[in-house]
Protein: SRPBCC family protein
Amino acid sequence: MKILKLAIISAVVLFGLVFIISSFMPSTVKVSRATDIDAPFDSVRKYLSDIRNWEKWNLYVDTFTNKQYPSATSLTSDQVSIDIVSTSDSTIKAEWHQKNTIFTSGYYLVAHDNMTTVQWYFDFKVKWYPWEKFASMVYDQQLGPIMEKSLARFKEQGLR
Structure:
């Protein structure tokens, strides 16, 4: 009986410590990558504002099956649906709906010397659950390399 009591108390204390540590972790995670594109600002902005162009360079969109484009700002597939929800002079913001999860992504654009810097980001809001907060620690390692390859592909192909 003493061993069972010790095991239960130890489990509660361990969970409490994990919960306290996770409460200091942020509930919003941003993963971002940037590159310079050798094209005028307006061309890049117009190209990125049309979601139908994304599959030409975006490795995430390229892998989706049964893609449909109800409009220039919307994509649906078996895995995800993406909607461009806002555009401004220098930003394009999209919502990704995947199963029961909604997260945002977007592009910040900065013009300089007939070149455009494109910063692509994903924002995730994680719940207070310790396992979600600890899992969010690897988002950068999971998404970053694919984002880098996608941006390199965008840069190589030019605006066609």
